[in-house]
What does this fold into?
Amino acid sequence: MSLQAPLWRSIAVFRFASLIYAAVLLAIRPVFYEDWGWAWAVIGVMTAWTVVTTARYANPARRTWLLLAADVVITALALLSTAILQTHTATRIGVMPVTATWLAGPALAWAVVGGVRAGVAAALVIGACDVSLRWPISGAYSSSALDGPIILLLSAALVGYVSMLSVRAERALQRATEIEAASRERERLARTIHDSVLQVLAMVQRRGAEAGGEAAELGRLAGEQEAALRALITGDEQPLAGPGELDLSAHLSREASALVSVITPADPVILTEQAVTETSAAVKAAIDNVRRHCGATARAWVLVDDEGAAVTVTIRDDGPGIPAGRLAEAAAEGRLGVSQSISGRIKDLGGSADISSTPGSGTEVRLRVPRAVLPA
Amino acid sequence: MRVMVVDDHPMWRDSVGRDLSEAGFEVVAATGEGAQAVRIAASVRPDVVVLDLQLPDVSGVDVTRGVLAAYPGAKVLILSASGEHHDVLGAVKAGATGYILKSASRAEFLDAVRRTATGDAVFSPGLAGLVLGEFRRLASDPAPDTPRLTDREAEILRMVGTGMSYKQIAERLVLSHRTVQNHVQNTLNKLQLHNRVDLVRYAIEHGLDTGRQ
It folds into this structure.
């Protein structure tokens, strides 16, 4: 259903209404006509043409340039017949031509089909015919002779503009529909992948871990791919973050793997872009730290706790822990490379970073990032 | 012990069913449709329902609610893939008492089924994070009957959320294993109670308590 359809309907209504107006004018003022009978014949032709054009313009496939050209020619001829049928005096003093306001039809049709320029072109042709009836323009009636053509010109330009707007709106609507279809398709794919590939990968991971040895390695790889694929099909949805903001949960979830669990609330945790980037980098540094100090098989958990006024991110590993005093010792010697890069980033955000360790239950890094607006 | 398995993926359904049978559980039903699970729950009377949340016909939340309404003696353990946060939270609020990932090992899974059957809440780190997040969200709700976490409960949920076992938590906090378990269980009970109260209030506000119109 085209947005232009209502424009065509109003043109049809205008054509019939102006046809009736022309007939009424002719009926009540026979004195202005040399040949009243032939003038009625012209009204007959106009009626037939109105029916034809209304029927054909209603169908987009039949709105050909041939039809539009014929519309201008027939309207112009009906208009020019005024020169023969009306008394010369009547025409001179500004009596409406036989066609009256019906002559605007083709200009409006051209405007809807071809926009402002086509509308103006058709209006100029019809207007020129109208002006030629009263030529040479002079004296008291000169201004009224130009009123009609000028109003016609303005109407055609206006309708052309509205028509162009409707075409643009229609394109935008179509594009939106296409985007919606594409995202539906992606959802369908995500569902399919979820129902098949992910389930199989999860099963391989589970069975592999039980079989041990080489199969365990395969299982671990399958688990990593499962996590990566899952992040891919669910990862693009970040509708709630405004401009300059990001969802910390979504960002941290990229760090998830077979050995790293990222635990988040159900709702997104929205922070400024800077806070999310810096916090993610700090978490990444902490995870690298776990790899370096606790070996390739240590597990790690990243917990995001959104307390409202601040967001706490806790990174814990199940490694051997840091012997008591080591941290203080290292700090005293001024070599706290990694923890410096962690706490430095968080302090820049106005927050704090604490490292604690209990022998036997791993090391815990706790990052606290305030939500308040920070100076840039 | 009677177990019903609800998973629309045949491979998982068979595998989980086999693991359970070999471990001595009685698999009384295995289905891939949520609606069917709700329909047969009362007649097969499962002690534990092992439920995948991604079902083709009914949402996991509705299956949880439906099964528990049809047979209140059942306990629901969610066995699901990660990345379905709202579904998991919804199912837990609707009465599920456990959540374990499909990537968990067979031993972890069987242990979870046993604990669920005895009435313990089975909290994966992921579930602790979701429950903690839900309480944080509710904290901004000023209504007087909104459930709150005690400091101790929040502390314990955080520890569960960072992968600590109940035993490790008990040692760290110098509490008994049972006390830690009770604290965790309490957080779940508060959420489920609040959810029921909410549903009743919604029903009354919308005139649903006066029967069909």
